[in-house]
């Protein structure tokens, strides 16, 4: 097999495809990319056995067709160093010897029989195909991925729940300390369903979506999904199980509401968090009609951080405790100028949301409180 390929396009596709690879694999063949020449395209495949990523690049001066598995680390490092130079590949179909030439030199190394590489993991079961605007999926993942749990003892919480309605898609994630519900009614799937997308494939799907306006083709069945964007295609398995009833914990009619500048709030939390207890990250929030007073203390080291931020509050004065690390996560991911925080009492979760929601969108983030002992 012989072909030439643009160096920059090759590097870009390798970088995106490599996101599926694990640092360590129990199956050695998964340390490789599968390169397949078919017509005027080079197909690049990476897999971790649960998720498979495929991309293609146009090639020229092609002679022959075939496939070979190539060490992923070698290709990635080589493509980064060569940059935007055209590359010439010569592959021996019998010995798997590979020669890659560029402007001032060439590399030689050995490949592996491509037949050993595992194929697509998604079940061939008939599924439903539909198309969603790329920015809907991008926003859904961006707003929820940070709140996914890493607790493998509760596997259903380690992914993003897609609750699909006929006229909207609801993205939900939770690590039990915080919960995010993002609704986008720009999407009109036209059917009802749901699945739990693992965190790793969710991040890969986000990396597949560029900044340009495009669409994502999806095919889902009871076991997994295929996402296709431009020259990238990813297949993955779902997390099996029932996602908890997220609406049950979201109090829609909280009696008390605080409106505050999000950036000022976030910066103040960052400062006082430096003095919070390392074990609890507790910050005590004392809320009155015109100000929020935050106090963080670490008795073990005799440290204290205190700051006051202006706000507008329409309820009875309240003292409630939150973990600063989770609060900073929430405040840094909400994109708005002014924030509304809805409260019931010090023992119930606080709801964080933009004061003005974007058209066709609704996002609410719930944070569990910490008991304040005085």
In short:
The chain is built from six helices and 26 strands. The protein is of the alpha+beta class and 374 residues long. A hairpin with a 3-residue loop joins strand 13 and strand 14.
Give the arrangement of secondary structure elements.
Blueprint: E1 2-5, H1 7-17, E2 32-38, E3 41-47, E4 51-58, E5 60-63, E6 66-71, H2 72-82, E7 87-91, E8 97-102, E9 105-110, E10 112-113, E11 128-133, H3 134-144, E12 159-165, E13 168-174, E14 178-184, E15 193-198, H4 199-208, E16 215-220, E17 224-229, E18 232-237, E19 256-261, H5 262-273, E20 282-287, E21 291-298, E22 303-313, E23 318-323, H6 324-333, E24 338-343, E25 350-354, E26 361-367
Antiparallel strand pairs: 1-5, 1-7, 2-3, 2-6, 3-4, 4-18, 6-10, 7-8, 8-9, 11-16, 12-13, 12-15, 13-14, 14-26, 16-17, 17-18, 19-22, 19-24, 20-21, 20-23, 21-22, 24-25, 25-26
